[in-house]
Amino acid sequence: NKLDLNTTIFSGKPITITAFVNLNQSYFNRENLTNVKSVNKQYGGRLSLNNKWVPLSLTYRNLKWKQTETGTNRIFTMNQDNLEARITRSFGIFSKNELIINHDNYIYTYADRDTVQNKVDQVTLNNTIYFDKEKKYNFNSRINYYNQVGGHSFGRLDAFEGIRFLLPAHFRFSGNYNYYALSEKLQNMKKHVVRGRLEHQLFLSLR
User: Fold this and answer.
1) What's the CA gap between 48 and 60, in Å, rounded?
2) Gap between the Cα atoms of 61 and 79, Å rounded
3) Would you say 156 and 184 are in contact if contact means Cβ atoms under 8 Å apart?
4) Could you read off the pLDDT of 51-65 as tens digits, one per residue?
5) CA distances (Å), 75 to each of 30, 64, 172, 202, in order?
6) To the nearest whole percent, how much of the chain has pLDDT over 70?
7) Which of 17, 19, 158, 196 is the most exposed place for a label (fewest CB within 10 A)?
8) pTM for this structure?
9) Is there a contact between 187 and 181 (Cβ–Cβ < 8 Å)?
10) How far is residue 113's CA from residue 24's CA, in Å, rounded to a whole number?
11) How far is CA 19 from CA 23, 137, 170, in A?
């Protein structure tokens, strides 16, 4: 059984509001041992500010699922709340920029015994910069910060910086730098990776 409802108010206007509800009930077999009844419920909405200065969208989503093993009557549940803010901005034809901020709250219950709760804050910044109109030379950047507090607490920072050049005589050069840092109770780790690659295309048909 499945039900999907979606509605949009002020479509194409400076402010757009979208709401949705999704309900789903299904049955499946787990590892050929027991049948499982699964009930999923999801609802939420999005507020979009459509303008050329700072296009912004705010999205809220609630997801609940409940799985019942029909042979053992064991119950597994999950409840997740997600709030996301997304900003996109381009400066002419030479750049694309996106900032995404997420907050999640997860609560898992396993067989009516163990409950695990985690709260996650995440920030992602994506940037692409073109150095010419033909977009032969560009710089790409992705920086992600992830912080989780709860049953398993840790923090992570991941950064990727890359360049790509289309050179004369069918040469192509790409290079990137990756920084990774992980911090948790029992360990701290940092990693730096640098890569470079030069390619040559013998024939135009070999693309």
Assistant:
1) 12
2) 11
3) no
4) 888 889 999 999 999
5) 13, 13, 56, 61
6) 95
7) 196
8) 0.82
9) no
10) 25
11) 14, 41, 50
